């Protein structure tokens, strides 16, 4: 049940492409077509305040991502201007109150010849690694050699995917026998080009990233994908946003949990689709997991955000649907829908009527003494 | 089966761009950011179009029912019961454990009841319409939970050895249906009680709950109470066998016999027409006889099928056993459905309980009562689990049902600023995933201040989570570093045992000394102990500081040999050698011989090494100014003079 929602204007001059919380949920970064990035901090009263805004690129900024705080306050962005950039917050003693902060560009990664479509930091235990993917079919892995000096990054690996890449995701598993893994999605429109999700694994022995799996079930262009946090489960869960929303279980076969993959052998996986949802009608643009990997949130072309949750039997269901009141969708809404439009931006909503079936249950004893008195047979 | 709550579309007040689509990204706990975002279709335009409104971001939170001041009390108090119960499960067994179980169940219910009453009070005094409605919704849920819990406690937790449960069921009904008692109080306060319009209704309501004494009291207030019919009814009521009075003395069969005798007597008197003059009394005795038709008439006074069921059992089959209950339940339900009452989720949950389908009870309760929080199902399932009522096999996700629900509950507490600590205690009792969940918890907790960091560190240390301790210290160190608090940063990095960060930071401290000639953070440096060996740089810094202390206290010989060993061990960064030589100059220039010839040779060797490197035009040479290079020449002179002094002195000593 939704208990509270709070809307605040971002003052971005164009479409927002991405919004990300930091690790602790107290800071947020947004990026937009207006070439800018903004940083938001949550204050004591739970209000979000913009503490930094700057023009980060010379094109639309597609994605923004936070680095683990043990490396400092660092974000990475990627853009239509064919670059990705690393930004670090400077905070001298003078600006300690945190009203405004200053972010400096530590480096620009200019290896791509086309728009850089996604950027993600590796899970912390792998070190300070950054993966980017771009429309020129290449995934690039960069590494910072000196974590105290973020201006030096070297291109460690280039993975040729053969398909224009739209999104990538690191497998966050911290289980020590799981090799580093990346899933890459492609927005290539032709359905004859085969599976649109490629999975790569890093082999220590060869010091190379190798393709270990292609999800051939997904042949439509992929817009987003995300691994669920693993928690030592014997399988990985990957959510894929494509024509519909799919969940895949990827289970390493054989040596899992016993020993690391030996030598140059390629890991084998047992993969199957555990759920497929077409509720978004047409296309799914975005997927995002909660911290515990128990609830998935998907956004689709129907303008709805849906939350999905598995019960203890492992069957996934939609538990919540959200719809905005953007101008476009307002026209599409049937007149009966009541849209809450409070003018103040702090807007606590009571649950909509009928959200619980309890009310309709007349066999239920009443609890208010006053109400009971009225019912007596005087 | 209860139908699952259909998800309702929630409308968010997100002012969007015309071609944007609502999208959402997860935050911490139960928090989402919704915004009107781009799609590949809108992306391809590449440049900003005109007339685009500024976009909003919506911070959405849900399942925050447990975060209000009242429900927070519920969370905290039941947390104590939970932790205590887990301890008892580990330490006691058998009937002792069972009675503990019952007690815990009662404690949970008492806390819930108190919370529910607080909510009622809030709802009554609340001004805001919307707020009151949400209070009332919450109260409704809590009351339902109490009803289910009370019932299941009878069936699954407080199981009597003889399997009879009518007395408990009556108590349950009396607790949740109080109209009869309330009416009776009203009537007793009336001037002429027998003329009260609800006089007979009160009597029947009480009778249906087996409140014989109250019924007799009300009847005695009637104006015709000395009439024979009244006296006869009073006698029947007085003689009604009550299991509560007999169950220590009689077996169930004996009681049953006694009860049949009594009912035959009721039957006889009714048939003989003792009560024809008083239709209400006649109805009353028909109830005593367990007449099917009269119960059908009374069903509205019961209000629900389960009340009707208990009332019927009281007068038709007082020795009914739990497994047989469901035979009668369906008939009672039918009574209500035939008259058009819709069976809701609550009815289904209770019916499933009567059918001993615990998994269905939990499943339906999860689907239906966990919209706000997992409080009920998690605690309730934990109890049932310890009572041995659940199969403990692992589910597909990797552990059992109890753990699944406890994990849900604990994670729902995560986004609250104080309740997360409660969540951690619950995770401690999740054997399979608890630890990884705690790790995830800790990793995502914001380290707002030192106090919170220390609290988290304490939690990690209690659970021996070294990796998390290091991460927290590293993050805190980076934070202090960014704020320019180098001392604090140093102690955090030392605690995290992060060599790279410590070395980098020490270099900064050394640089600062070279610039200012002042030692900062001396309290930390002087009290490091063995921690200084974490990094060579740090060892150097500490030793160098020691040199200064020795020098200041006039122990020049010790100071000199320490300085020498610093140079000899090559611990100092090259750039700092000049400073070291500068420090050596006054020692060389003093009247007494402090560096002997051998030591002086070593110093000269080091100087040569430095000069050599400068000539090789390495990075260091760029960092040195010309003036500093000139000083090296001066130093050379000092060394030579000292050498001659030393040789002379040594020679003198030998000859003497």
TrEMBL record, chain A:
PROSITE patterns: WD_REPEATS_2, WD_REPEATS_REGION. Keywords: Cell cycle, Cell division, Lysosome, Mitosis, Nucleus, Protein transport, Repeat, Transport, WD repeat. GO terms for cellular component: lysosome; nuclear pore outer ring; Seh1-associated complex. GO terms for molecular function: structural molecule activity. GO terms for biological process: cell division; cellular response to amino acid starvation; positive regulation of TORC1 signaling; protein transport. Its main location: other. SUPFAM superfamilies: WD40 repeat-like (SSF50978). It is found in: Lysosome; Nucleus envelope. Transmembrane segments: none annotated. It holds the Pfam family WD40. WD repeats lie at residues 9-41, 277-309. It comes from the Eukaryota. Gene3D superfamilies: YVTN repeat-like/Quinoprotein amine dehydrogenase. Belongs to the WD repeat SEC13 family. This is Nucleoporin SEH1. It comes from Patella caerulea (Rayed Mediterranean limpet).
TrEMBL record, chain B:
InterPro entries: Nucleoporin_Nup85 (IPR011502). GO terms for cellular component: nuclear membrane; nuclear pore outer ring. It is found in: Nucleus, Nuclear pore complex. Keywords: Membrane, mRNA transport, Nuclear pore complex, Nucleus, Protein transport, Translocation, Transport. Pfam families: Nucleopor_Nup85. GO terms for molecular function: structural constituent of nuclear pore. Belongs to the nucleoporin Nup85 family. Component of the nuclear pore complex (NPC). Functions as a component of the nuclear pore complex (NPC). This is Nuclear pore complex protein Nup85.
